Amino acid sequence: MVFVASSPFYDGTASYANLTRDSLALDGMNFDQMVILDGKNMDQCEELMKNADLVFLAGGDTTVQMEMFEKMNLREHIQKCKGVVVGQSAGALNLAEEVYSSPTPDETAIKRYWKGLGLTKINIEPHFHPENDDFIQTILLPDSRTKPFFAITDGSYIIDDDKSKTIYGEAYLFKNGEMKQICENGKSCKLNVNKSK
């Protein structure tokens, strides 16, 4: 298991990595070895990607994480991974071909789009709160006119493989300035999104 950090030198990465590994073990997914990939060992990125059964991209600051990915050339090296790739929060956003990252209320001028890892064409808005009408009206709906994305609540997730793309749990489609709920808690639905890999 390779746990890819969200920041090159964050002291809390080991705690999050251990928690993730222990959580997976509760479901019977045990790994002989776990390696944290961050700023201290990014020169090993290519070899780690080749040998990983699971690559877990952590959550955190999306832009800081992508800058680190660029430095370790992860976009190229992750293509050599024959295992499963999982992205959480920022890690899930950065899996896309072209990343969409919504700003927080005090970050309205930040860059919203950049080149991601290229493993999926799916863009997500994680940690979505459908009751947050002001954020929806002022940020998400206008941004959806530029690029569609799926907003998912905590606990929801998307599986994108070579055969299908399926969303599990509460989710909404933002497209052309409109918002539509497409899945509910406890349910799943297929997505019609082409994958580029």
Helix-strand blueprint:
Layout: E1 2-4, H1 13-26, E2 35-37, H2 45-51, E3 54-57, H3 62-71, H4 74-77, E4 84-87, H5 90-93, E5 98-100, E6 113-115, E7 124-125, H6 133-143, E8 149-152, E9 157-160, E10 165-168, E11 171-175, E12 178-183, E13 188-190
Parallel strand pairs: 1-2, 1-3, 3-4, 7-8
Antiparallel strand pairs: 5-6, 8-11, 9-10, 10-13, 11-12
In short:
With 197 residues, the chain is an alpha/beta fold.
Describe the structure.
The protein has 197 residues and is α/β, with parallel strands linked by helices. It is 25% helix and 24% strand. The protein has helices spanning 13-26, 45-51, 62-71, 74-77, 90-93, 133-143; strands at 2-4, 35-37, 54-57, 84-87, 98-100, 113-115, 124-125, 149-152, 157-160, 165-168, 171-175, 178-183, 188-190. Strands 2-1-3-4 form a 4-stranded parallel beta sheet, sandwiched between helices. β9 and β10 (165-168) form a beta hairpin. It is globular and about 45 Å long. 34% of the residues are buried.
